[in-house]
Amino acid sequence: MVFDNSYNEQELIQHIIGGNERAFAKLFDHYRDKIYSAALKLTHSTVIAEEITEDVFLTIWLRRNSLNEIKSFSAYLFTIATNKTYKILKQIAKNYKIVLLAENNEPITMENSEDYLITKEYGSLLQKAIQRLPKQQKQVYQLMKEEQLKRQEVAEILHIQPETVKFHLAQAMKNIRTYCMMHLSSSVGFLLFLSSLLIP
């Protein structure tokens, strides 16, 4: 099939319904930057915006047989993009909440099996992150977070100043959080953006 230089959306959609990949590529080129910009504005993450853009057009391709039922394709496209964006942000917020609760040794309420899997994954990552800490950070973290000792008690055990204990704990928490957020099964770019805003 040969396209002219004009953009005829309805014609392209009919070809896409028929499975024409070149027509789909032309539609993709027409809307890609608009979808990407909208996603970037909401997420502040180039990584996630790119993922959302690709996912939106994959959804369009997979649903191409129902495109004849759509009255306004552009409205349909941006509705899909908006829904996918908020779904991702909601999941990131949930993952983030679980990480913070676990860090503070607070009980985690499981709303569904997905929450359980996230929590289980975080628990495994937490142990790996702890093992990767420098020796003194690891000691301070284990004594304060796992043994529930006070700062002064840890200082006496390790023969260091209480302020040094505070510093090592802050560094340990920062390193653990960064490691876990980088490896949680979610959108890495925005998780890193969130973690960069945290104060241990």
Outline of this structure?
With 200 residues, this protein is mostly helical. 76% of the residues lie in helices and 0% in strands.
Global geometry = rod-shaped
| Rg of Cα set | 24 Å
- Total count of strands: 0
The CATH C-level class name of the largest domain: Mainly Alpha
Beta-sheet strand percentage?
Answer: under 5%
Task: Describe this protein's structure.
The chain has 200 residues and is mainly α. The protein has two domains: 9-89, RNA polymerase sigma factor, region 2, helix turn helix motif (Rna Polymerase Sigma Factor, Chain: A); 109-197, Winged helix-like DNA-binding domain superfamily/Winged helix DNA-binding domain (Arc Repressor Mutant, subunit A). It is 76% helix and 0% strand. The chain has helices spanning 9-17, 21-43, 46-62, 73-103, 113-131, 135-146, 151-158, 162-183, 188-197. Helix 2 crosses helix 4 and helix 4 crosses helix 5. The longest helix is centred in the middle third of the chain and has 31 residues, at 73-103. It is rod-shaped and about 75 Å long. The relative contact order is 0.10. The model is unreliable at 1-5, 112-117 and 185-200 (pLDDT under 50).
Walk me through the topology:
Elements: H1 9-17, H2 21-43, H3 46-62, H4 73-103, H5 113-131, H6 135-146, H7 151-158, H8 162-183, H9 188-197
